[in-house]
Amino acid sequence: MAWNSDAVGGISPPLDQIFADKKMCPEALFAFYMGGANNDRGAAGELTICGTDPAHYKGTIAWVPLIAERLWRIELGPVYTRGTSLTTGPQQAIVDTGSSIITAPMSVVQQIINLAGAKTTAQGTYEIGCNTTSNLPALIFTLGGQEFILEGPDYVVQLNQTCVLGFLGLDIPPPIGPIWILGDVFLRNVYTVFDHGNKRVGFAHPTKQCVNTTSNS
């Protein structure tokens, strides 16, 4: 699902071949719904090719143009919490469904660690008490002029009986960095549209999906 510039061995990505058939695929885009926010992780996700699925998002889509046709790299607006900005100056981000967490400059992640009262483990994760997730501050991301809110449980990952922040502090040097990587911890809380034809990424608020249950009674 990458661009030709990211292709290996000069082989066109499969989606390029699909998008070339305008009759079969009138819209050169694909969209991800990852089952909704943290409390809906048991729900199924969905990949839609050549269109979007309005059943899985509400409101308007906030569009952010690509910075370059290499990876899905966009401009990230202010990120803040409790009225305090966590970022200074322009930020860039790669939108990556292949990454499980959010990667950000260490200066930003350290602020989140401090706010959460997390401790850094020998494995490089940021551990918190699983009974404290609802007390964590909401993180607000600005994309395309819209705000997308991650509540405390939304950015925590539970590993067996341990809970860790779904962040990694990483200072990527120029010319690639400094940069964020918005992985699944962020993307499961939004509906994401990768618009290949118009060279942009769209974000919308996801709908919550009911999880079917069965009973033997």
TrEMBL record:
It holds the Pfam family Asp. One of its GO terms (biological process) is proteolysis. SUPFAM superfamilies: Acid proteases (SSF50630). GO terms for cellular component: lysosome. It comes from the Eukaryota. Residues 1-204 form the Peptidase A1 domain. Keywords: Aspartyl protease, Disulfide bond, Glycoprotein, Hydrolase, Protease. One of its GO terms (molecular function) is aspartic-type endopeptidase activity. Transmembrane segments: none annotated. Belongs to the peptidase A1 family. This is Peptidase A1 domain-containing protein. The lineage of its organism: Eukaryota, Metazoa, Ecdysozoa, Nematoda, Chromadorea.
